[in-house]
Structures are given as C-alpha cells and as structure tokens.
Amino acid sequence: MRLPGAILKRKIQQRFLLALIILTLGVLALKISSQPDDETNPEENLKKITPLHERVGKVNGLNIFFIETSGRSCLTARQACGVESAARANPHASITLFMEKTPIANLSRNNSDKDEVNCAITKFLLRRIENVRILRQNLLDHLEGTPLWEFYRNGLLNKSTTPLVHRSDAIRVALLWKNGGIYLDLDCIVMRPLDSLNNTVGTVRDFIPNWIENGVMAFSAGHPFLHFLMKSMILAFRPDNYLSLGPSAVTEAILDFCDRDDLPANTLLFCSRNSSLFIQPPESFYAIGSGRADVFYQPKTDLADWNKLKHSFLSHIYDSGSGRPVPPTSLYAQLARDYCPFTYRTSESHDSF
Ligand SMILES: *[C@@H]1O[C@H](CO)[C@@H](O)[C@H](O)[C@H]1NC(C)=O
Ligand SMILES: *[C@@H]1O[C@H](CO)[C@@H](O)[C@H](O)[C@H]1NC(C)=O
Ligand SMILES: *[C@@H]1O[C@H](CO)[C@@H](O)[C@H](O)[C@H]1NC(C)=O
Ligand SMILES: *[C@@H]1O[C@H](CO)[C@@H](O)[C@H](O)[C@H]1NC(C)=O
Ligand SMILES: *[C@@H]1O[C@H](CO)[C@@H](O)[C@H](O)[C@H]1NC(C)=O
C-alpha cells in the first residue's frame, strides 16, 4: 500500500515523537536506577548479560577458595574476574574468598573512581552470586595447628621482605590441609568445571623443566603431602626470595616426597605414606606460561594461542597485577569478556579493567 506524502510524513513524525518519548523515559529510568550506592546497577547489568546460572539450590561439596592478603577492602576488577569466572564455571561449588582483615602495610586510602567501581563489583559478587562468600579474617590464624604456626609465632615469617606473597603461600597450604578443596590465585580465569581435580598440581612448560607452580592446587583435606610441604617450606624459606615458599618449595617437596628426580606430566605419582599425586600438563592451568606473558596483553591475538587454551581448565594470567593495559582486542580482554562478563563490562565501561 502506498501512502500519500502528507500522511506518510505525519506517520514518520509520530514515530519519531514516540521514539523520543521512549528514549526520554529510558534515560530517566537509568538516572533513577543509578543511585550512588548502586552506581553500576548490577541487577540491570546482569540481565543484559546471560542469566548467571540455573542453580537448583544444591552444592556439590566442592570448595574453591581464593586468598587476598593485602588487607584492601575491595578486590581489583582483575581479581574479581577470577572469582566471577570460578563461580560461573562451577555453579554448584562453594566459592570462598579469604580476605585479610588487618592490613600490614600502609595502603593508599585513596577513593578514586576506579576504587569505587571495584568496590561496586566486589559488593555485587557478594550479594548477587549465590555461591560466593567473602570471609574477612586474620588469615595468619589459619596457621594454628599446622607446622607453620611455630614458624610464624617465633617471628621468622615476619622477617620476609615480601610479606604479602609469603603469607599467601603459607596460608593456602594450611587451608588446603585443614579443609581440602581447590586453591586458586586471584589472577586465574576459570573456563571449565573443576570438580574432576583431586590431589593435583600443574607444571609449566616454558620455564625450568619439572617446575610446579602453586597458583592452582587441589587436594583432599589432610593429604600427607601437604603436611610434608609445610615442614619443607620452613626449611626452604628465604626472607628475601619471594619464590622461596612458592613454586620452588612445592617442586622440591614433591621430588622428595614422591622420591623422584623428574616430574612427568599426565602422570599419577605414587608417593610416601601410600598417597598419590597427579601432575597436570602445562595445558591444564598454565598453557601460556610466564615467559610468554606478553601474549595476554597484545592488541592482536594469535589463533595458535587460543588453541593452546582449548584443553585448559583455567588460565593463570601472568602479570595481571602489574597494571599493564589490557586492550579490548587482547587475549586477556577476550577471556574476561567470555568468562567474567559482569566484571569486565562494568569495569570496562568505567575504563578501569
Ligand atoms: C603509615 O603512614 C603513616 C602516615 O602517613 C606513617 O606515619 C607511618 O609511619 C606509616 N607506617 C608504615 C608501617 O609505613
Ligand atoms: C591516589 O591514587 C593516585 C593514582 O592511583 C596516586 O597517584 C596518588 O599518589 C594517590 N594518593 C594518595 C594520597 O595515596
Ligand atoms: C608478626 O607481625 C604481625 C603484624 O605485623 C604482628 O601482629 C605479630 O605480632 C608479629 N609476630 C611476631 C611473632 O613477631
Ligand atoms: C580424592 O582423593 C582422596 C584420596 O586422597 C579420596 O579419598 C577422595 O575420594 C577423592 N575425591 C574425589 C572427589 O575423587
Ligand atoms: C600402605 O599400604 C600397604 C598395603 O596396601 C599397607 O600394608 C601399609 O601398611 C600401608 N602403609 C601406610 C604407611 O599406610
């Protein structure tokens, strides 16, 4: 049907007016909903993204935990991404974020816009993702009842020149030994369910051969290796070597405990006290290793690097805490967009991922 010019013009005007009214209402609604407390308006943002998950109110008994030792009150967006990704990929697990209650150093009490966005994201994780909880505690108390307690109480651990790192290394092992579960560094992006991981750690390829990282560790409570590891850590501790309670201590302890001089990947090692331990290949957690950290931040992504992540449970993101810019087309941004969409979009729109 053809409409005479005048009618057509009026119809277009009406449509235009209607569109204008809808737009105005929309802007108003947006203004009203963005009250100071909910600046990023998590609920609305969440609806725009995919519904989080169809939780049927069940937990599968899997504990996943993170540790933040600095004493800051909120996570950075990049840390929040780790928590969100773990919760999304493991909707039936319980995700716990242990945050230090007592800051040990002077942290800048600096209410920048970025902090505000970060705190809004942290609040969202706590309030809206059902399977995430945050515990604010004196985290060193978790060392009590472990071999590391004396080590701390007699002042040795306090001699560390990198106390945040060393405390985190110690506390994760104590918590694993006491509670079992999966410890993850906050700079991981989780892509798959982790419930098949048990008594396992991962190797990296592009570093020293047989090198085990401690950024991802899955153990059942009371696993004898963890007790052995804590005792070894005390001997391995060097106050001015930030790695001394981390990867090198874990690697040495496994070689000792399992009586080996190599650590073959994809292998179940039979170790002391009738226990066993599985060595994950680099693809599992550290497909892109520290030697190639640049890959995460380059504006162009190589398909070969995507393919490396195909068989990964998660990807540890090296240099995540360094503040390096994350271009929107980089591998890091693409992973964040896919696996922690709420955090990424909220922080990106405030230019603070
Ligand atoms: C923390 O900051 C205050 C004031 O800026 C200063 O007096 C104090 O010495 C600092 N403490 C440490 C442990 O750096
Ligand atoms: C606040 O943060 C900015 C940027 O992060 C920094 O340059 C500045 O020194 C900080 N101020 C204080 C008082 O910490
Ligand atoms: C170690 O340092 C913490 C915090 O600085 C302090 O509370 C604690 O008393 C120290 N412990 C020992 C044994 O020196
Ligand atoms: C994990 O390994 C322990 C042995 O250390 C075993 O008792 C437990 O059943 C295993 N858990 C799962 C979920 O396979
Ligand atoms: C290890 O297992 C063997 C047989 O399965 C058993 O005879 C032995 O007592 C166990 N040793 C320990 C330390 O549990």
TrEMBL record:
In which compartments does the protein localize? Golgi apparatus membrane
Tell me what topology the record assigns in the membrane. Single-pass type II membrane protein
Ordered alphabetically, the record's keywords are: Glycosyltransferase, Golgi apparatus, Membrane, Signal, Transferase
Major place of residence: Golgi
Coiled-coil residue windows: none
Q: Write out the GO cellular component annotations.
A: Golgi membrane
Please give the Gene Ontology molecular function terms for this protein. hexosyltransferase activity
Which ranges carry the Alpha 1,4-glycosyltransferase domain?
Answer: 218-346
Which terms does the UniProt entry file under GO BP? glycosphingolipid biosynthetic process
- Where is the signal peptide, in residue numbers? 1-29
One of its Pfam families is Gb3_synth
InterPro entries, alphabetically? A1-4-GlycosylTfrase_dom, Glycosyltransf_32, GlycoTrfase_DXD_sugar-bd_CS, Nucleotide-diphossugar_trans
Q: Which family does it belong to?
A: Belongs to the glycosyltransferase 32 family.
The protein here is known as Alpha 1,4-glycosyltransferase domain-containing protein
